[in-house]
Amino acid sequence: MRILHTSDWHLGRSFHRVGLLDAQAAFLDHLVATVQERAVDVVLVAGDVYDRAVPPLSAVELFDRALHRLAGAGVPTVMISGNHDSARRLGVGAGLIGRAGIHLRTDPADCATPVLLADGHGDVAFYGLPYLEPALVRDEFRAAKAGHEAVLGAAMRRVRADLAARPAGTRSVVLAHAFVTGGEPSESERDITVGGVASVPAGVFDGVDYVALGHLHGAQTLDDRVRYSGSPLAYSFSETTHRKTMWLVELGARGAIEAERIDCPVPRALARIRGRLEELLADPGLARHEDAWVEATLTDPARPHEPMARLAERFPHVLSLVFDPERGQDDPLASYARRLAGRTDQQIAEDFVAHVRGGCGPDEREGAVLRAALDAVRVEAAVREVTP
Q: Name one GO biological process term (predicted).
C-alpha cells in the first residue's frame, strides 16, 4: 500500500505578517498532483490542519476545496486534529464526510476504532490518535498521571488490544500528534510541556508497522517505522535549513517499510544574516540572499538610524530585525541573557525563588507547586483555544 504522510498544514497562518494562503494553495495543488502521479492509495494528515481553533474563512474554503479534490480522485484520506486545531470544530460532520472517503479522527474515545483499507495483501488498520491534552483526556484513558506518556501509553494499549483481535497479518498504521523523544523542534511549534516534560519515548508506539507523526516542523526519521513529515512550509526563521517534504511510504505485504521524501514547493527562500549594519549592506557574499525572506541580526554596539529601511534597500523582502549588540564579558545585560539562554519557565521561576531568598531555592514540594501553576496556565490557554 502506498501512503502519503503529511502534517502541520497550519492553514491560515502567516509568516511575519506575510500571508501564506497562496503558498498553502500551491502546496495542496502539489499534494493532489503527487497523489495522482504516484498512484497513492491513502493520504495521512497527522494534525494541525489549521493554525488556530477558529480559522479564517479563506483557510476553511481552501481546506474544503482540498477535501473535494481528494474525494473526487477516489483516494481515502485519514486525518487527526493537532494541538492548534479545535477537535470539535474539525470533527463536525465526520460521519457524513467519512462516506466520501475522508476520515476525520478528532475524538480521543475513538482512537482504537481504525479506518480499514485493503490492498492485494489484506487489510491495513489506520488508527488516528488526535492530540491528547493530558489534563483534558486523563479521565477518558484512566491514566494514573496527567502526562503525555501516560495518556499516549493508555491510548496505544487500546490500539494494540483492537489489533490483537483482528485477523493475523493485519498491518497497522498509527497517526499521532506529539513530541517524541529524539525529535528536533523548531521555534514555530507551540509548547506542550506538562509537568516539566514535553516529550514521550518512541517505545510508546511499539507494536505497529508505521507511525505517522505530526507536531514537529522538520521532516525526521526517529527510526524506520517512526517518522515526522514536518510542515510543508517554513513558519519561522528557525526552519531556514529545513528541506520541506512529504513522506511517500510503501507498506509491504509483511509490514516492511520503504520511504521516499517528496519535495514541497518553496514560495521563497529564507535567510538569516548577522553582523553590523554597514557590513551587511556591503558584503558581496550576501548577494544570494537579496531575493529571500530575511531575518537580520544587527550586532552594532549602538542602534543604527533607520536600520529596517536601509536593509530593505538591499534586501527588499527583509521581514525580521533583531538587535544583539556586541557586549563585553562584564556587561550585566550580556551575562543576564546568557543566564536565561536555553532555560525553561520552570527553571527561571526556581532561579527567581533562589534569588529572592538569598540563594535558597525551592524544595521538592515548592517545585511541584510551581510546576502545577505553570501547567494550569498552559492548560487554561489550551482550553480557551478550543472552547467555542
A: DNA recombination
| C-alpha–C-alpha distance, residues 13 and 18, integer Å | 9
CA–CA dist 137, 107 (Å, integer): 10
- Cβ atoms of residues 310 and 279 within 8 Å: no
Residues 6+ apart with CB under 8 A from 233: 10, 15, 20, 23, 24, 27, 244, 264, 267
| C-alpha separations of 339 from 15, 343, 347, 357 in Å | 30, 8, 11, 18
Distance (Å, whole) CA 361 – CA 382: 30
What does the alpha-carbon distance between residue 128 and residue 78 come to, in Å, rounded to a whole number? 8
Please state the pTM of the whole predicted model.
Answer: 0.86
Distance from C-alpha of 163 to C-alpha of 158, rounded to nearest angstrom: 9
Q: What are phi and psi of 44, to 5 degrees?
A: -115, 135
- Averaged pLDDT for residues 67-73: 95
Contact 229, 5 (CB under 8 A): yes
Output the CA–CA distances (angstroms, integers) from residue 76 to 2, 4, 73, in the order listed.
Answer: 11, 11, 9
d(CA 31, CA 16): 25
Q: Which three cell numbers stand for residue 224?
A: 524506520
CB 233 within 8 A of CB 239: no
What kind and span of H or E run contains 63?
helix 57-72
* Distance of alpha carbon 77 from alpha carbon 4, whole angstroms: 9
Cβ atoms 55, 65 nearer than 8 A:
no
At residue 70, what are phi and psi to the nearest 5 degrees? -65, -45
Please write the tens of the pLDDT for every residue from 327-378. 765 555 555 555 666 677 778 887 888 777 777 888 888 877 877 787 677 6
- Helices in 80-147 by DSSP H: which ranges? 87-90, 94-98, 134-141
pLDDT digits 0-9 by tens, 92-114: 999 999 999 999 999 999 999 99
CA-to-CA distance for 81 and 89, rounded, in angstroms?
10
- C-alpha–C-alpha distance, residues 293 and 275, integer Å: 17
Determine how β-strand 14-15 pairs with β-strand 42-46.
Answer: unpaired
Residue type, 245: T
